[in-house]
TrEMBL record, chain A:
Keywords: Cell cycle, Cell division, Cell projection, Centromere, Chromosome, Cilium, Coiled coil, Cytoplasm, Cytoskeleton, GTP-binding, Kinetochore, Mitosis, Nucleotide-binding
Domain Septin-type G: 37-306
Protein name, UniProt field: Septin
Subcellular location(s) of the protein: Chromosome, Centromere, Kinetochore; Cleavage furrow; Cytoplasm, Cytoskeleton, Cilium axoneme; Cytoplasm, Cytoskeleton, Spindle
Organism of derivation: Coregonus suidteri
Similarity section: Belongs to the TRAFAC class TrmE-Era-EngA-EngB-Septin-like GTPase superfamily. Septin GTPase family.
Presence of the UniProt keyword Cell division in the record: yes
Automatic annotation (TrEMBL), chain B:
Annotated source species: Coregonus suidteri
Keyword Nucleotide-binding in annotation: yes
Compositional bias (Basic and acidic residues): 371-389
Top-level taxonomic group: Eukaryota
Cited CDD domains: CDC_Septin
Protein name as it appears in the record: Septin
Length: 430, 420
């Protein structure tokens, strides 16, 4: 079922007024302003040719949208599925309505209908895109709302059930636009057949989890009853007619058969009146609101998510990102990045410091080693010197000793030779 | 509208069709109204005026209820904004009313910064709305709109002219919010003085270029009343919640020894006019102006500040996707650059330090070489000395040996001599 937005429940101070203030007039002010502004509505009709789409539009709006001056799409030759829009301005009771009818000639008419829904989807998306771009401009002007507010899907009155094409189309479009399925040319079904057909269709819709447009619950009891009645009659079986026939003195729109007249606006003949009342008189505004608050927001968030997350499919992250605007998202990413860089910076600093410390330590160590070796060598040298000194001293000592000895010996010799000479002289020598 | 806008939005032919009967879409305004009523309305009033000028009393009188209020002292450090929200209901209409008071306005000795908190508050409300509007998943219909729809500016009843604080403040606010100036405590001014006072005030506002809110005259139903009311600005009001018996009625009034000032008597003051204009006739227009004019102006300035443009240099309109993608690319590029810069800085730092350390290493190496040389020198010297010593010792030994052999030979000679 389509999710409905819930109004916020405020928990603020309640006050009772003790006299006339006057803001009960607000709704009137709103009324006046809205009439001045005028209204817009875009209605799309989809279905195979010959199901009476154009006729139904004419009947709904009691005008000749498709007249001989503006022939309907059915009279045009179509090779592929077209999407055509016609804008008309209608006035009633002082209220101006710019009505855009979007027709899809060629839908389902080809032999191979695969992707015949694509032009429809493209059209709806392009209107949403236009609105999104207009909404996102810096200079915004009054934005015309060309989004498709309602899609009437025409089901062939086979009496059996939905066709695969019907199911496929509705499945693809139910989350892009409000889909209201209708049984076309309902005057080919008897009431009992119609009932069975409706039941079958609703069963299939539920089976395939197709979300068709749901009527909102109202607080008003009477309205609720009406809504419940309408819900039971879904999908609505409609008959349209461009021809006015006289029946019992009254001029009515209807289809003349040999066996009688099928009146368009007769509640017992078909659900046309229900459709018109629901679509135009009671729920037009709601259709616009659901389009704006649900379908368009869906489109927008998908589009913006694609832009921000660059198509990333990380669901845990995206949930968080959804609550921000794309710019806030970029801000967040920027902050994360700054933090990451800070962390990286500190890490790199740490590594750097560590390496520097290491190297410095190594240098210190080799310096110490150097010192040590130098000390050692010095010590060695000193030892050697000392040794040498010792040796020299020893040697000098020896030398002086020996020289002293020699001198003594020499002296002795001298003395001896002197005495010998003396003795010789004395004739001691014979 | 710019030419391009017109082209984009209404280039399709629209046919006027006449209807052959009653279709029923004239109920559209009713559908819209019933939806609004179910949703409830929201209205935010900002009251700017000196302490004690009667702001709270006027609010109580306007809305016929007692809102909470503590009397403010005159000794606030600065202006402080005090918003309070109330839920009111009249017949089937729910109104979420927020009254924002400016506490401490006009009390400080230096009032140059007085307007700032007010402007900031208004901007914050716009900013919050803008942020909500820009979110990916947003819920605008649920959003409690805090944007100020009307600023009631309370003018002190001096009878002469506007104070400079008034002019400065109103000038700062006029592009951000709808301003309705009112003369407070109007029961202190006589009718003739009042008339002159009003003229003086309006002419001062005009000559200073202050844009106050004009009641709209483009809607047929209210043109007359609005244009006549425009001439009565600024409204001279009296507020009172006390009830006094006048004749056989009990009315809200202020009782003086010389008479009773009736709040709802139009010949006594303009209270009824204010109530008519503010609440009964133009509430919706005030809300619309705030959204369509003041908020849009804020939004436009903000987006332009952020670098958004509507057209690229070739004057082709940007699509939203392109804009965001361009921004994102720019943003990513920015981040990349920052990262690169940081890395580069590091690389440089590393290079520097490496060079330093290498230098140190080289020095050490040199020192080492030097020491080695020195040591070798010393070693050589030692070696030389050693050799010298060796030689000397050798020489000495030779002498010794020579001497010994000689002395050995000598005794032989002696013996020989003896023999002879």
């Amino acid at each position: 079922m389509i999710e409905r937005p819930e109004s916020a429940v405020a928990s603020i101070a309640q006050r009772n007024l003790e006299g006339y203030v006057g803001f009960a007039n607000l709704p009137n002010q709103v009324y006046r302003k809205s009439v001045k502004r005028g209204f817009e509505f875009t209605l799309m009709v989809v279905g195979e040719s010959g199901l009476g789409k154009s006729t139904l539009i004419n009947s709904l709006f009691l005008t000749d949208l498709y007249s001989k001056d503006y022939p309907g799409p059915s009279l045009r030759i179509k090779k592929t599925v077209q999407v055509e829009q016609s804008k008309v301005l209608v006035k009633e009771g002082g209220v101006q309505l710019t009505l855009t009818i979007v027709d899809t000639p060629g839908f389902g008419d080809a032999v191979d209908n695969s992707n015949c829904w694509q032009p429809v989807i493209n059209y709806i998306d392009s209107k949403c895109e236009d609105f999104l771009n207009a909404e996102s401009r810096v200079n915004r002007r009054l934005m015309p709302d060309n989004r498709v507010h309602c899609c009437l899907y025409f089901i062939t009155p086979s009496g059996h059930g939905l066709k695969p094409l019907d199911i496929e189309f509705m499945k693809r479009l139910h989350d892009k636009v409000n889909v209201i399925p209708l049984i076309a040319k309902a005057d080919t079904l008897t009431p009992e057949e119609c009932q069975l057909f409706k039941k079958q269709i609703m069963k299939e819709i539920q089976e395939h989890k197709i979300k068709i447009y749901e009527f909102p619950d109202t607080a008003d009891d009477e309205d609720s009853k009406l809504i419940r009645k309408i819900k039971e009659q879904m999908p609505l079986a409609v008959v349209g007619s461009n021809v006015v026939i006289e029946v019992n003195g009254k001029k009515v729109r209807g289809r003349q058969y040999p066996w009688g007249v099928a009146e368009v606006e007769n509640g017992e003949h078909c659900d046309f009146t229900v459709l018109r009342n629901m679509l135009i008189r009671t729920h037009m505004q709601d259709l616009k609101d659901v389009t704006n608050n649900v379908h368009y927001e869906n489109y927008r968030s998908k589009k913006l998510a694609a832009v921000t997350c660059n198509g990333g499919v990380d669901t845990s992250k995206t949930k968080n990102q959804m609550t921000r605007s794309p710019l806030a998202q970029m801000e967040e990413e920027r902050r994360e990045h700054v933090m990451k860089m800070k962390k990286m910076e500190t890490e790199m600093e740490q590594v750097f410091e560590m390496k520097v410390k290491e190297k410095k330590q190594k240098l210190k160590d080799s310096e110490a080693e150097l010192e040590r070796r130098h000390e050692q060598m010095k010590k060695n040298l000193e030892a050697q010197y000392k040794e040498l000194e010792e040796k020299r001293r020893h040697h000098e000592e020896e030398k002086s000793n020996w020289e002293a000895q020699q001198r003594i010996l020499e002296q002795q010799k001298l003395d001896a030779s002197k005495t010998m000479e003396k003795n010789k002289k004395k004739g001691k020598i014979f | 509208m710019a030419a391009t806008d017109v082209d984009i939005f209404s280039n399709e032919e629209k046919r006027n069709l006449s209807l052959g009967g009653h279709v029923g879409f004239d109920s559209l305004p009713d559908q819209l109204v019933s939806k609004s009523v179910t949703q409830g309305f929201c209205f935010n009033i900002l009251c700017v005026g000196e302490t004690g000028i009667g702001k709270s009393t006027l609010m109580n009188t306007l809305f016929n209820t007692m809102f909470e209020n503590e009397e403010a002292s005159h000794y606030q450090n600065g202006v402080c904004m005090r918003p309070r929200t109330y839920d009111l209901q009249e017949s089937n209409v729910h109104l979420k009313l927020t009254i924002v008071d400016t506490v401490g306005f006009g009390d400080q000795i230096n009032k140059e910064e007085s307007y700032k908190p007010i402007v900031d508050y208004i901007d914050t409300q716009f900013e919050n709305y803008l942020q909500e509007e820009l979110k990916i998943k947003r819920s605008l219909f649920n959003y409690h709109d805090g944007r100020i729809h009307i600023c009631l500016y309370f003018i002190a009843p001096t009878g002469h002219s506007l104070k400079s604080l008034d002019l400065v403040t109103m000038k700062k606010l006029d592009s951000k919010v709808n301003i309705i100036p009112i003369i407070a405590k109007a029961d202190t001014i006589s009718k003739s003085e009042l008339h002159k006072f009003k003229i003086k005030i309006m002419s001062e506002l005009v000559s200073n270029g202050v844009q106050i809110y004009q009641f709209p005259t483009d809607d047929d139903a209210v043109t007359e009343i609005n244009s006549s009311m425009n001439a009565h600005l600024p409204f001279a009001v009296v507020g009172s919640i006390e009830e006094v018996k006048v004749g056989n009625k009990t009315v809200r009034a202020r009782q003086y020894p010389w008479g009773v000032v009736q709040v709802e008597n139009e010949s006594h003051c303009d209270f009824v006019k204010l109530r008519e204009m503010l609440i009964r006739v133009n509430m919706e227009d005030l809300r619309e102006q705030t959204h369509a004019r003041h908020y849009e102006l804020y939004r436009r300035c903000k987006l332009e500040e952020m670098g958004f443009k509507d057209t690229d240099p070739d004057c082709q309109p940007f699509s939203l996707q392109e804009t965001y993608e361009a921004k994102r690319k720019e943003f990513m590029g920015d981040l990349q650059k920052k990262e690169e810069e940081m890395r580069q800085m590091f690389v440089n730092k590393v290079k520097e330090t490496e060079a330093e350390l290498k230098e140190k290493e080289r020095e050490l190496h040199n020192k080492f070489e030097q020491l080695k040389h020195m040591h070798q020198e010393e070693k050589r010297k030692v070696e030389e000395k050693r050799r010298e010593l060796e030689e000397e010792m050798n020489a000495f030994n030779r002498r010794k040996v020579a001497a010994e052999t000689l002395s050995l030979a000598q005794p032989l000679k002696k013996d020989k001599d003896k023999k002879n």
